[in-house]
From TrEMBL:
Protein name: AEC family transporter
Protein's organism: Acinetobacter pseudolwoffii
One of the protein's GO biological processes: transmembrane transport
Keyword Transcription applies: no
Main localisation: membrane
Length: 302
């Protein structure tokens, strides 16, 4: 089993490393990476999510299990974080970073790992998780940075209604429920577009890595990395056992909660005046450490 896991994850690690080398070797310009991220976020990735959900066999009991586990964990961890903020008087600039470091997830790494290990059935479960978690973690992340929540909540909901990833999932789900079938030519066209998404996305993850200023924040970096990559999957496993979730869905959920935080966390942190240097360090360290931690977590649950 370890050999299967290593074989499945090696291409992911290789593509992230390749993206890092291309960016920092300055072989491609900064404009290229901005364009690549935009193309993937607004076109390639939504098409892949649409195609996956449009052709999937979605079981209602799986959706119920995912909703139960995801909301239970997010609520419990959020309450714990707010209690710690109150106890230690953590500034908003840093609290938002901690929330993102524990609750946000890297969709590219997640989908690439799930597609390699769990194939179509796992991808369907992961897509359901994304539909739930993308709005939820965005709302929690923005609220963690702000004092006046009412106005911010309205803005978040408006922004999320235009999120291409959520729209891709929703349109795919509606198409699936409609009972319609894609024309074979159109399906092949969409598949070719979707095939481009994960490799490009993983290279963009590598290009976004930054390795400066680690000495300033060794303790929070260590806590955030251990908590996200080992603490969260352990909590997910225990919650799945409590709710008696089947083994396959448990494996996908544990993998989801073992993912490093999202590269987009850095952008959100800068927009809301958070500690962007700390956020960049957390993203980079978690992404690198995840190369080993994912192997350990997957070896444990599979």
């Amino acid at each position: 089993m370890l050999q299967i896991i290593l074989t499945s994850l090696f291409p992911l690690i290789g593509l992230i490393s390749f993206g890092y080398l291309l960016k920092h070797g300055q072989w491609l310009s900064e404009d290229f990476w901005r364009g690549a991220e935009k193309l993937n976020y607004y076109a390639l990735f939504p098409v892949m999510l649409f195609l996956n959900l449009a052709t999937a066999k979605i079981q209602m009991n799986v959706i119920q299990d995912v909703v139960l586990v995801v909301f239970s964990i997010m609520i419990v961890v959020s309450i714990a974080l707010y209690m710690l903020r109150h106890m230690y008087q953590i500034s908003y600039a840093r609290f938002g970073v901690y929330v993102q470091g524990l609750l946000r997830f890297n969709t590219y790494i997640g989908l690439a790992a799930v597609s390699s290990l769990f194939h179509q059935q796992g991808m369907t479960i992961f897509a359901v998780i994304m539909v739930l978690c993308i709005p939820l973690v965005n709302i929690l992340s923005v609220l963690a940075f702000t004092r006046s929540h009412d106005m911010q909540l309205k803005k978040i909901i408006l922004d999320l209604s235009k999120n291409p990833l959520i729209l891709g999932c929703m349109v795919g789900g509606v198409f699936n429920l409609s009972g319609l079938a894609l024309w074979a030519g159109a399906e092949q066209f969409l598949k070719q577009i979707a095939l481009c998404s994960l490799p490009l996305g993983l290279m963009c993850v590598g290009a976004a890595l930054k390795f400066q200023g680690f000495q300033r924040d060794v303790l929070p970096l260590s806590l955030m990395t251990f908590g996200r990559l080992f603490g969260m999957p352990l909590i997910a496993f225990l919650v799945c056992k409590i709710f008696q979730i089947d083994a396959f869905t448990t494996q996908v959920l544990v993998l989801f909660f073992a993912l490093p935080t999202a590269s987009a966390s850095y952008v959100l942190t800068r927009v809301y005046g958070g500690d962007s240097q700390l956020m960049a360090s957390i993203i980079s360290v978690q992404t690198v450490v995840a190369a080993g931690s994912l192997i350990l977590v997957l070896s444990w649950i599979i």
